[in-house]
Amino acid sequence: MPIIVARFEAAGPLITSVFGVSLPRFNALTKASLTVPDLQPADALIDTGASGTCVDPEVIKALGLTPTGTVPVRTPSTGQGTHPAEQYDVRLIIPGPPGEAPLIIQALPVLCMELKVQGFRALIGRDVLSRCQLTYFGASTLVTLAY
């Protein structure tokens, strides 16, 4: 079981992640002899408070994606209310330790949220964390993610 050690920074535990077009979109673009957008690296905050994974608009734009729908989202700033967030399908790659296979999710619905201003470009939510074992060693601020 590969284990990634997160970098603990002011924003919290960050891991390197890479986003691309979903496998179905990749296949459609390839079949149509169209250019597949380059993979987009992004520092991602491990966020157990987020039910779903979120990606900054800059990453979405670089991938040339169009929304698959809109989802009502509740955040601490919305109180009991919600605000609409566009949803997109992406491929998520979390590189493994040297010599280990990466964690790859070929088609993952994500929400588009402004995150770059907070010092990262993605939130890894419980939709991805449910496929992993997350360990937080409090006093040492060490966070590991095994998959």
Could you provide a short overview of the structure?
This protein is mainly beta and 147 residues long.
Descriptive account of the structure:
The chain has 147 residues and is mostly beta strands. The chain has one domain: Cathepsin D, subunit A, domain 1, CATH 2.40.70.10. It is 13% helix and 44% strand. It contains three helices and eleven strands. The protein has helices at 23-31, 57-62, 126-129; strands at 3-5, 7-9, 12-21, 40-46, 54-55, 69-73, 83-94, 103-112, 122-124, 133-137, 142-146. The strands form two sheets. Strands 3-4-9-5-8-7 form a six-stranded mixed β-barrel. Strands 1-11-10 form a three-stranded antiparallel beta sheet, with no helix packed on it. A hairpin with a 2-residue loop joins β2 (7-9) and β3. The protein starts with a strand and ends with a strand. The model has no long low-confidence stretch (mean pLDDT 95).
Question: Which characteristics define this entry?
Answer:
3-stranded antiparallel sheet, 3 helices, Cathepsin D, subunit A, domain 1, single chain, 147 residues
Q: What is the structural class?
A: mainly beta
> In the CATH scheme, what's the topology name?
Cathepsin D, subunit A, domain 1
Radius of gyration: 16 Å
| Tally of contiguous helical segments | 3
Distance between the termini: 6 Å
The residue fraction in helices comes out at: 10-25%
Question: pLDDT under 50 segments (min length 5)?
Answer: none
SSE pattern, N- to C-terminal: EEEHEEHEEEEHEE
